[in-house]
Amino acid sequence: MGKLGKKARKFAKKNLQSVEKRNRKQKPFLKRKFAKRDARRDAEDEEEKQIEQPHKKRCIEEKPQEIIINAVFDKDENAALDGGDSDSDGYLAEDSDFTNAVANGTQGKISDNEMSIQSKEVEKQRKKLVDEAKSVIMKRKVLSGSALSSLCDLVDEEQSVQALLSLLNWYRAACHYGHEPAGVTNPDNYDIEDSETFAKVVIFVLQKADHAFRNILGISESINKEKVLKLKNNPKWDSVKPLVKSFIRSTMYLVQQAADVEIVVFALTQLRVSIVFLAAFPDLLIKLIKISIDLWVTGEETMSKQAFLVLKDISMVFNSECFDTCLINMYKAFLHYCDSPKENSEQCSSFLRDSLVELCSQDMQKSYTKASVSITQLAKLLKMALTTKNKEALEKIHSKQYTSCVDLWVNFIAANIQDCDLQPLLYTIVQVINGVATLFIGPRYLLLRVKCIQWLNHLSCASCIFMPIASLVLDMLEYKTTIDGEKQKKLEAVSTVKLPKNWLKSQNFQEQCIFSVIELLSVHFAQWSFHISFPELATIPVMRLRNFNERTTLEGLKRVVKRFIEQVEMNIEFVQMKREEAAFSPNDQQSTETFLQLEKRNKTAPYTQYYQSIIAKALGTKEKK
């Protein structure tokens, strides 16, 4: 750089000192000014940090183990089933004169209009009891077949309260036979003569008790809980109430203790008829819910179905009081069962899930709230796993309990989305499913990914909303596996969501991957095979399948994939041909929605028949297992 010119040097001498002097004077002022402003900013930042700090602490302090899926409704007051009625019920107090009259065949001498003889046949039967009564040991009450017949006639024909009371005592003795609770004595020594009489008293009381109660009280078969609560104004209720309570308690005890499945099922069936009377006995109602849930989860198939019908009736009759109790405790029992799978657990889990969905569908308003809370909990746990990659959170996501919970709400939404506004739940559960599918992408999680895609297909079919699952399916083609290992069992036989590593080297693992791809894409394409945009939907999947077919060396897989490609391409040509013949514009939404609807109803299209064969084959494979 050259020297400054004369004018420049003159200007610098004249002005430079003053400029520097002015800068020196302003520097302390600017420092003080900006220092105050910076101090204010620092103070504001500290206040903001103090405000945000509690929120950050809450997020940091929350741990995966604190999010418990099956405890999501624990704060609900109606969820508890503690307490209930005790088992220490005794025998009803009988009229000794009536008991002796039955034994001696002289009931007609009792000064009670209810005990009057109305037919000659009954009179003959009573006279026959005289000889039998002489052989009875007076210290014990032994129920003979003829005495039982007499009591049954009195109940059937005369609605005798005393006869019904005696029968209920014998019925209680039969239900508690061999299982008398500690501390309960049997002062009257109720015994039954033989097994035939034993069976008759149990069957008669189960079949006739409810009808007898209603006849004595003068009420109809269609009575509701409000009318039962008003029975306290009925003068006959005071004498009948202990009988009803004794019958229900004895039947519940029989259900708990009987080893024969048919007896339990029959008792539950008859108990359902008298459920409305439980309005007068809230403790017994809670106890029956608890017993029914235990049988629903752990019982044999027929018993489990009957127990569910009891719970369903309770939730309908006592909706305001008991629906939440039934739903919450059934939900917990279902997840607990899924968390500890047993033999044939897949079939049992499906039944428990379907019955729980059926119960939820009875009261959509309450069920919607519960479903929203549960799905939010699932999303919360998934978000934690996605952001932190915490090992505990990841294990919870691919646990049986988590997937069973998702499966439950998927089926609930699919069953009711056409009749109710469940779009918010649908959106959230789809986000959860997509998150789970993308969180676990390795071949060891093949079954989990297949399950996620099946859920999306199910929701798409039920809601008629397109869900892009093709990319999730086709990613399974990229699993790098070897076929050098020994042949293993079918993949569906694995009880865990995560496959063992040695299974990845099995000979049939790649086959299962491809068969799963074909089956899932078949379901997806079948839903949209008559849609006007099917050619665009199927183009990329067909390209990727064709590339895979060129790479693979297994001839069996090549044939399966090639046939699928041919069927899809035939359907593409069919839809394109119909599109060219269409006279409406793509902007005509109404015409677009009705496109090929007639062909869809006929179910004669080649791809539809191919899809049905694929599904039939898949069902046949599952039945063999």
TrEMBL record:
It is found in: Nucleus. Its main location: nucleus. Residues 50-60 have a biased composition (Basic and acidic residues). Keywords: Nucleus. Residues 1-13, 22-35 have a biased composition (Basic residues). The keyword Calcium does not apply. Residues 1-60 are annotated as: Disordered. GO terms for biological process: ribosomal large subunit biogenesis. GO terms for cellular component: Noc1p-Noc2p complex; Noc2p-Noc3p complex; nucleolus; nucleoplasm. PANTHER family: NUCLEOLAR COMPLEX 2 AND RAD4-RELATED, PROTEIN REBELOTE. Belongs to the NOC2 family. This is Nucleolar complex protein 2-like protein. It comes from Noccaea caerulescens.
